[in-house]
Amino acid sequence: MLDDIDRKIINGWQGGFPLTPRPFAEVAQDIGLSEDEAIERIRALREANVISRFGPMFNADALGGAFCLCAMAVPEERWENVVEAVNARIEVAHNYQREHRLNMWFVLASDRAERISEVCAEIEQATGLRVFAFPKLREFFVEFRVSA
């Protein structure tokens, strides 16, 4: 169960995190925590799988790289093994399950566009399953935030 402090962390730290020598000390002070307590709270939220990651989101395109939305049809009995194989790739930004024939969706991010097709082929080789790649044709900005 999340307490009020966890909710403040999740709801308040999703944008505008300070780029300072001690950012956790700065944001922790705003909610009445020490720097160490704030870091421990984030660690506990990650370990409990309340949040999947804590870190910056980079625009790979602006840095000369590429993003690609990908999907796979994963048999339920192989789900955990395929998740492990896909998530082992450093290029996988996030991965989620859907109730659809294409039940695994993930985003690849790479420092160069041609690496996307290479990673798709590597995942296919590792899993024996086809990766459907849906490259970005047009960009829309949606500020994604999750409320706790």
Condensed summary:
This protein is an alpha+beta fold and 148 residues long. The protein contains five helices and four strands.
Examine the coordinates and then state which fold CATH places here, giving the name of the CATH topology of the largest domain. Alpha-Beta Plaits
Extended strand count: 4
Biggest sheet details: 4 strands, antiparallel
What is the CATH class of the largest domain?
Alpha Beta
CATH architecture of the largest domain: 2-Layer Sandwich
Topology:
Blueprint: H1 4-12, H2 23-30, H3 35-47, E1 66-72, H4 79-87, E2 92-97, E3 104-110, H5 114-127, E4 132-135
Antiparallel strand pairs: 1-3, 1-4, 2-3
Could you explain the architecture of this structure?
The protein has 148 residues and is an alpha+beta fold. It has two domains: 1-12 and 19-55, Arc Repressor Mutant, subunit A (Orthogonal Bundle), CATH 1.10.10; 66-135, Alpha-Beta Plaits, CATH 3.30.70. It is built from five helices and four strands, in the order αααβαββαβ. It has helices at 4-12, 23-30, 35-47, 79-87, 114-127; strands at residues 66-72, 92-97, 104-110, 132-135. A four-stranded antiparallel β-sheet has the order 2-3-1-4. A hairpin with a 6-residue loop joins strand 2 (92-97) and strand 3. Helix 2 packs across helix 3. The longest helix is centred in the C-terminal third of the chain and has 14 residues, at 114-127. It is globular and about 50 Å long.
